[in-house]
Amino acid sequence: MTNAKDKPGAPALEQVVRANLAAQAHGKLRKALSTGELRPGERLNGRALAARLGTSLTPVREALLQLVAEGGLEMQAGKSFTVPVPTRAAYLELRDLRLVLEGMAAERAAAAVTPPVLTRLATAHRKLCTAKERGDFASALRWNEEFHLGLAGAAGMPRLLRLIEGLWIQSGPFLNDLRADWPHTVAEPHPHVLVLQALEARNGPAAAAAIRRDIQEGGEGPLSRLEG
Predict the structure, then answer these.
(1) Who contacts 211 (Cβ-Cβ below 8 Å, separation ≥6)?
(2) Which long-range contacts (CB under 8 A, 24 or more apart) does 189-196 make?
(3) Per-residue pLDDT reduced to its tens digit, 150-188
(4) How far is CA 71 from the centre of its chain?
(5) What's the angle, vertex CA 89, arms to CA 87 and CA 95, rounded to 5?
(6) E runs forming strands in the chain
(7) Which residue positions in the chain have pLDDT lower than 50?
(8) Are 43 and 81 in contact (CB under 8 A)?
(9) What pLDDT is recorded for position 54?
(10) pTM for this prediction
(11) Is there a contact between 226 and 181 (Cβ–Cβ < 8 Å)?
(12) In what order do the strands lie in the sheet with 74-76?
């Protein structure tokens, strides 16, 4: 009788489980980068991360290596992982790419957005404003990312969304430079509100212009610090 472990497909089951663990670790670390939870210059210890994530070192290391390939982390001496320290040139490049790609996504989203997605975007913006008003910077960053990536996803273009997510894991840590300068009050009209209005009106160019304005205005703090 042939044992299950001897069947041709049996080894693949182990690989799938391992891949799932690495994918979960990658997803959590990716989110920590894109929401600014991981700070520029921060050194990441694989064993400590594995303990925090409740898994072994191998899938965490696989996730870290994938993030290096995506530009979200740097690796030194073949084993040390760090969050890149921002430079003015890197920030400007990421911002310019976001202006183009998120603008495109917003314009396409205006033609494809559904009422449930509009509701989710409005909720994310409302929670962002609430977090800012109470000085909860970490939550504000998370809801800001939720709004931007939710808008990108509403375009119904998965390849475009992946490109934008890649830009966010590289630019997210820069947002920590806003902590000292971000006011607790919310200026009106907030560009997110203009985005929502444009989406409701199915006005693609207006949605693109509003999200680009948000990216420009939101980046003034980090840019001024980098110039200094």
Answers:
(1) 102, 103, 105, 106, 148, 151, 191, 195
(2) 190/125, 190/129, 190/214, 191/217, 192/121, 192/125, 192/128, 192/147, 193/125, 195/106, 195/121, 195/151, 196/118, 196/121, 196/122, 196/125
(3) 999 999 999 999 999 999 999 988 877 666 555 545 567
(4) 13
(5) 100
(6) 43-44, 74-76, 80-82
(7) 1-2, 4-7, 9-16, 184
(8) yes
(9) 87
(10) 0.85
(11) no
(12) 43-44, 80-82, 74-76
The pLDDT of residue 182: 59
Tokens representing 219 are: 């980046």
CA distance 219 to 95: 8
Q: How far is CA 100 from CA 61, 149, 169, 174, in A?
A: 33, 14, 17, 19
Q: In 23-48, which positions are buried (b, 16+ CB within 10 angstroms) versus exposed (e)?
A: ebbbebbbbbbbbbbbeeebebebee
User: What pLDDT score was predicted for residue 183?
Assistant: 55
Contact indicator for 141, 175 with CB cutoff of 8 Å: yes
* pLDDT value for 14: 46
N residues, the chain: 228
